[in-house]
Design brief:
Blueprint: H1 10-13, H2 23-50, H3 52-67, H4 81-97, H5 99-110, H6 116-153, H7 165-182, H8 185-194, H9 200-205, H10 207-221, H11 227-252
Helix pairs in contact: 2-4, 2-5, 3-6, 6-7, 6-11, 8-11, 10-11
């Protein structure tokens, strides 16, 4: 009998099933995913550090839209303020640009432990989460000039504002992050409906309380505290609430 030829690289390409992997193999797989994620993050952060003037101009555009192109300067009072701002923008930009790689590595790590039907639901949910987060961030960016105009006028005409770029950047990024995370609301509701925790009929019966709670939640969580941003956040949340009821009914059918 001729012995079967065993290639030296055969075992390297074959990926063991999660049930057959030992704890050490799981930790090794996790370490490899983390290393790839960190490399992608630092590479993306380096690119953002290089193109920092363009990123700063993009984030400064809402302020220039309110104050005018020649009156929207940002002032620093700390010798290290410029370097701190550049590093902060590089970190945020690196996280944003590397997010596809991060999500892919996370997906590849958890995929072997999922059943076929779970994978079928996971892909649409991940795609919907990314799309909704991006939509929330865009809405926050578009509505930010209205928030700046309100915050600039609420103190009265005798006040002249000088913006610190670090605080300005913190406010706009906080607003975009809050909007993005809050836009995951329909994903959470549909997940609860699929899990049987709540039903579409139950959500429909809670509609009046949902309106009140959504408005209160938007008022509390909006970083800028202006009424325009609050309404810009509350209106989509209620629309998402109604869409979750419709989607839950369709999925049950």
């Amino acid at each position: 009998m001729v012995a079967r030829l065993r290639l030296p690289f055969r075992n390297r390409t074959a990926r063991p099933s999660p049930d057959a992997m030992t704890l050490a193999e799981h930790l090794g797989e996790l370490r490899r995913r983390i290393v790839v994620t960190l490399v992608a993050f630092f590479a993306a952060a380096t690119v953002t550090f290089i193109v920092y003037p363009h990123v700063l101009h993009f984030l400064q555009s809402p302020y220039c839209h309110v104050a005018g192109r020649h009156n929207c300067q940002l002032f620093i009072t700390d010798p290290l303020g410029g370097l701190t701002l550049r590093i902060k923008i590089a970190a945020y930009g690196g996280l944003f640009l590397a997010s596809p790689v991060i999500l892919w590595e996370l997906w590849r790590f958890i995929t072997p432990g999922l059943h076929t039907n779970e994978k079928r639901y996971a892909i649409p949910f991940v795609a919907a989460s990314i799309t909704l987060f991006a939509g929330g961030a865009v809405l926050a960016y578009v509505s930010f000039p209205h928030a700046l105009r309100f915050l600039g006028n609420v103190g009265g005409p005798s006040l002249h504002q000088i913006y610190d770029p670090n605080k300005y950047l913190g406010l706009i990024l906080a607003l975009m992050t809050v909007f993005g995370l809050t836009f995951e609301f329909p994903v959470v509701l549909v997940s609860l409906e699929l899990a049987g925790v709540v039903s579409p009929a139950r959500l429909a019966s809670w509609r009046r309380w949902a309106i009140v709670l959504i408005v209160v939640f938007a008022a509390v969580i909006t970083p800028s505290g202006d009424p325009f941003s609050m309404l810009a956040l509350a209106a989509p949340l209620y629309i998402f609430y109604e869409l979750s009821i419709v989607i839950g009914k369709l999925l049950r059918r």
